[in-house]
Structure formats: structure tokens, C-alpha cells
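Quick note —
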Amino acid sequence: MNRLSIDERAQILAALVEGNSIRSVCRMLGREKRTVTRLLVDVGTACYRYQDRVFHNLKCQRLECDEIWSFIGCKQKHVTKEMAEKRIVGDAWVWVAIDATTKLVPCWLVGTRDAGCATEFIADLERRLVNRVQLTTDGHKVYLNAVIDAFADEIDYAMLVKTFGTEAPGESRYSPAKFIATRKVSILGEPDEKLISTSYVERQNLTMRMGMRRFTRLTNGFSKKIENHEAAVALHYMHYNFARIHQTLRITPAMAAGISNHVWSFQEIVAMADGSMAMATKAA
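Predicted structure written out below.
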């Protein structure tokens, strides 16, 4: 296979982060599916490693966490024993944290929606911070022990518990359940009640669904392999954190957090996968 130029690879990545599927990118740019997928995995892996390395000593003040559903291969209810023995399939939840001030996403985790992943995710978040923060999550009970294990009493933590009604007849497949009310519950420390919210992280969930075709419901663009899924998430957050100007901030989240001093280009992102950090390390 002939090596694509850095500009050609940057063009493929730009198409992927704007919500195009693998097959649509192949049609638009005249590339083979294997070429696009291999590029996604190579660059996605580099993106994860880079962000894992630079997202430390963060001076966040207010954080929000949530989980977003997706699946690999098929939905959990369709997973057979034979399928599960061959590869990872079924529901895949992405745990996400966001800084409410800078809009930076400092960490995420692709896994199941259980206590084990909650513990791993919150522990990863804690090790990236340098000061006490206010944290808000939804009412998912597995957060309780996870936050206590990671932060002990060095946090102001609250839950925003939402109550939903039943779906209207005939609408349950496409419409969310009717929202009824929210309840703010202080768990640890002294969280400011006015700042107890999950609005920013829920908006981030929408950004994910709009930016990655594999998260779009009721299509066949879902991930077929866990490696591709993880790579797509890492690429998405590299673009979101470093290369996409936030409409409210007028700069990227990484710039707002003091991690980067410029808006990254796709060529810089591609350079990481080449092992050439000369361009990529212009960020502070």
C-alpha cells in the first residue's frame, strides 16, 4: 500500500470527526476501508497516549460526570454465548468527565456501566487533579463508593437525581421518558447548591453523538470492534480538546485550561501517529 501524505491523512481524520461513517469517508475520498480503519486506530492510539500524558496537575474547580451508551457489534440483548467467546460485543458505555469552566474533558473510559468501571474512572480522574473540586454526577449509585475510594473527604460532591415518568404509548422506541423533576443531594463536603448540575456533561454527550457516526442510534454505523471504538473516542476528544474552537470560549478547551497555546491542526494530530512529535509538542 502506498503511504498517504500527511495532508491526505489529515483530510480523512477531518471527515471522521465531523460525524461521517467509515464507508462514507471511503466513498467521499476514494480510499479503501482498511486504509481508513488502520489510520483511525493508529492515530486514535496516539491521541489517547498524548492526552493521558499531558492531562495531569489540572487546576479544575467544578467537574461533572456522566455515562453515554453505545454498543459493539450488536446490542446486549442480542449477544450469544458463541459471540461473547470470540470477541468483545454488546453494550459499551463511555464514562466522561468535563470541567464546567474550561469545557476540557480530562478523562474518559470505555467499559461497562458497573462498579468496577466507576471505580477505575473516578480514580483516573482524581490522579489528574491538584486541588479540591466540586463534583456532580447523576444518581447512578456506583458513583458513591467510587468517589469515596478515590477522594476520601477531600471533595465537595453532590448527585443530581432525576425522576422520569413512563413513555407515551407507541413512542417508547424513539422518544425518551417524560422528565418529571430533579433533586439535588449533597454527599460529601459542602458543595455549592447553585452549582450542582450535569448540564455541561449532558451537552457533551450530544457532541459525541453528533461527532461520531458510530454513536448515532438506529443506523448500521455502529462499531464492529472494541479497538475501533476506543480509537474513535480518543480521536474525538483530541479534536474536541485541542483542535476545535469552543463557541462560547472562542478558544479550545485545552487553551482555556493552559495546556495548549494554539489551535491544533489535523496535520499535527497525524504527526503523533508517525512518532514525530516536533509538530505535536508545540502545545505547552
